[in-house]
Amino acid sequence: MTDTVANLILDLLEWIGRKERTYQETMDAWPTTCPRLPVWEDAHARGLVERESANGRFVMRVTPAGLALLKEVRPYSFEELQRQGGKESSQR
Fold first, then answer.
1. For residues 92 and 41, what is the distance between their CA atoms, to the nearest angstrom?
2. What would you report as the CA-atom Rg of the chain, rounded to the nearest whole angstrom?
3. Domain 3-87 -> CATH class
4. Is residue 29 classed as helix, strand or coil in its secondary structure?
């Protein structure tokens, strides 16, 4: 994985972690049209994000593995999500 993709994956985790996002909102904001920047696919394949059914719609969640990666690589972002209550909106 390139540094560009790795950084974009971290951006995606931060974005999803800030507030509940629907699957459609996520796909609109993070399209998968560029084969050289497979951000969504890589994050999903690595188990960093997941799609879950909630209240009759699909929402995106940062998985515990995604939170652990944020904590390791971007501790300031992880701490900010914790302060904002992002942990509750990012985990089951």
1. 21
2. 12
3. mainly alpha
4. helix
